[in-house]
Amino acid sequence: MDFDGCVKAVTRAATGAGAAPLSVDLKSGDMRLPAGADVAAITKAIQRAGFGVAS
Question: Which domain does 30 fall in, by range?
């Protein structure tokens, strides 16, 4: 999967878990979530998509 594909996959997983709007920058390793986002649910969704999550 290319870089853009990874960004799209992570964005899709996080959005599916209720994180909208959000910003994903895999190059810097940053993801910005809306206030009140369910971080645990978003983390699980991203991990199920095959990606790691660091806090």
Answer: 3-48
The pTM assigned to this predicted structure is: 0.82
pLDDT tens-digit readout, 1-55: 567 888 899 999 999 998 888 888 877 888 999 899 999 999 999 999 999 998 7
Residue 54: inside a domain? no
Alpha-carbon gap, residue 39 to 55, rounded angstroms:
10
Q: What is the DSSP string of 18-40?
A: T--S-EEETTTTEEE--TT--HH
Instruction: Give me the amino acid identity at 24.
Output: V
